[in-house]
Automatic annotation (TrEMBL):
This is NYN domain-containing protein. Residues 4-167 form the NYN domain. It holds the Pfam family NYN. GO terms for molecular function: RNA nuclease activity. It comes from Denitromonas halophila.
Length: 294
């Protein structure tokens, strides 16, 4: 049975995709996928054009762990049907390591075992050329799906080795990626009237010191309220895992530490994470109760 697989280098996807969408490469921590399930569906539809409409075996998503925990986005992708999350590591410079070797291994093994007849590579790395040629020796057709313009974002030797090259354009990525680095419009400045200035109270330092529990609760509410739209995604994440996603965990611990003005103990970190999970589930239940019934 003819089938194809999609191999996505996430580092390339975000770097080249942001350049195509926004005119410049945006730091990874400022980017997110707006709707992971919808993105995978659109990517599969685009890839099927190159694969002549044959069935999909699986989407392989290659990324690096941002820390000891998955990010919320990685967690969302990992539980999608037909998606396999494969993880390398980040070095001290924030560069992915081990991702290319994972792509090479999967591509060659699937080709060797006759599991696929076509492979769609969302990557531009010249280091993949040898793997492409080896997979072709097993009869697999290799198609490059470039992020943005292939002439800019895919090595020339990789293009020559591939059986076809097509592109995901800037508009595709504009509809797919959220960019938090883009400047927000400034609120208008309102000058206070002189009499208001005269009556303005003088700020005084807080008379009381926050307890650990109060500091944790304050930070947790701030994190959740910063983007309430993520509550359903977090609730879904905590339905299968009690681990706080890395993109929330770092902020949670750092902000509590800053409020208290001291390092947290291991026990306090565990308690803070437990408070966060509990509060997300509470907020999720409130949202569900408030939602109109079908």
């Amino acid at each position: 049975m003819d089938r194809f697989a999609i191999f996505v280098d996430a580092g390339y996807f975000f770097a080249a995709g942001s350049q195509a969408a926004f005119g410049a490469t945006v730091p990874r921590h400022c980017l997110s996928i707006q709707a992971p399930a919808e993105m995978i569906s659109k990517l599969t539809t685009q890839a099927q054009v190159s694969a002549d409409g044959i069935p999909l075996l699986r989407v392989y998503w290659y990324d690096a762990m941002p820390g000891p925990r998955l990010s919320l986005e990685q967690s969302q992708l990992a539980i999608l049907p037909g998606v396999k999350l494969r993880l390398g590591v980040l070095n001290n410079n924030g560069e992915q390591k081990g991702v290319d070797s994972l792509i090479v291994t999967d591509l060659i093994e699937l080709a060797r075992n006759g599991a696929i007849t076509d492979a769609i590579l969302v990557s531009g790395d010249e280091d993949l050329r040898i793997a492409v040629e080896l997979a072709q020796s097993y009869g697999v057709r290799i198609h490059i799906l470039a992020a943005g313009e292939a002439r800019r974002n895919v090595s020339h030797s990789l293009q020559m080795a591939a059986d076809s090259v097509s592109e995901l354009d800037g508009e595709w990525f504009k509809a797919t990626l959220a960019n938090t680095s883009r400047p927000q419009p400034e609120a208008p400045t309102i000058e206070p009237r002189p009499e208001a200035m005269a009556k303005a109270p003088v700020d005084e330092p807080e008379a009381t010191t926050l307890s650990f529990k109060d500091a944790a609760k304050r930070v947790i509410e701030e994190l959740i309220d910063a983007d309430p739209a993520q509550i359903p995604d977090l609730v879904q994440h905590f339905s299968t895992s009690s681990s706080v996603p890395s993109d929330f965990d770092g902020k949670l611990i750092a902000r509590i530490r800053a409020l208290l003005g001291e390092q947290l103990t291991g026990e306090q970190k565990r308690e803070a994470r437990g408070f966060f999970v509990h509060r997300v589930r509470e907020r999720g239940a409130l949202l569900q109760a408030a939602a109109p019934s079908a």
